[in-house]
Specification:
globular; 37% helix; alpha/beta; nine-stranded mixed beta sheet; two-stranded antiparallel sheet
Length: 254
């Protein structure tokens, strides 16, 4: 199957995979080793084919800053707690990737030298060029920024061709929440402008805007079917493609 987007400059395909905390927890609080191991094997399959993979991980399986702040915690402190949760997920993914035979580096926006490298974009790019997976933890290192926005920023700074957003419970972007509205329809293609105007909250508006302003494509796909991570990393047409322009200008069949 032909990919929807081609790597730029004749180099290998380079993508940023965003994994939510819910993926790591298997939909529950904590870490599900079987789920993380399965995701690591799917990433390893794409890396073996030459795809350069960076990963941004969420931490919602441990802490959600916004939710903690609603229960009385200071929002900044709650967000920092959430960032530490993402680092735990990043280290777990690193371990399972290395067990799958993939050299992996974790870089964090909050310095913690005993467990990870600091986030240095040029070093991350060099790791990717050498075939290593780079996992970014600790979000942006600042409160009030979601890991969705961080995924877009890291993808731009490391010159990725596409942002891939793996979701639990849905297999793409729908006209409404399919878990609430049975009439919701999945969209094969969507523009950022339409997503923002229609209030489709598959990722936050800041992430949509950052991708739109920099003409970076995004693919939203479901994690429920085995093999989907590998397919998305390869560039196969699954889920929903989100771009700056309409489908007929992208060479994409809606």
């Amino acid at each position: 199957m032909q990919p929807d987007t081609e790597p730029t400059g004749g180099r290998a395909r380079r993508v940023l995979l965003k994994l939510s905390g819910e993926v790591f927890g298997g939909g529950r609080v904590g870490l599900d080793p079987d789920v993380v191991s399965a995701v690591a094997r799917e990433i390893a399959a794409a890396v073996a084919e030459g795809v350069q993979v960076a990963v941004v991980v969420g931490g919602g399986n441990f802490f959600r800053g916004a939710e903690l702040s609603q229960r009385g915690l200071d929002r900044s402190r709650a967000d920092y707690m959430g960032m530490l949760g993402t680092v735990m997920n990043a280290l777990a993914l690193q371990d399972f990737l290395e067990k799958a035979g993939v050299r992996t580096r974790v870089q964090t926006a909050i310095t913690m030298g005993q467990v990870a490298e600091p986030y240095i974009p040029l070093r991350a790019i060099r790791h990717l060029e050498k075939g290593r997976v780079v996992v970014f933890g600790a979000g942006a290192g600042m409160p009030f920024f979601s890991t969705d926005t961080v995924a877009a920023q890291r993808a731009l700074e490391t010159h990725c061709d596409e942002v891939l957003v793996g979701k639990n419970g849905v297999d793409g972007v729908y006209t409404a929440d399919p878990r609430v509205d049975p009439a919701a329809v999945r969209l094969d293609h969507l523009t950022y402008a339409d997503a923002i105007q229609q209030g489709l909250r598959v990722v936050d508006a800041a992430a949509f805007s950052l991708c739109m302003d920099n003409d970076l494509t995004m693919r939203v796909f479901g994690m429920g079917e085995p093999g989907n991570v590998t397919r998305a990393l390869r560039g196969e047409r699954i889920g929903t493609l989100v771009t700056t322009r309409e489908a007929d200008n992208q060479g994409v069949t809606p």
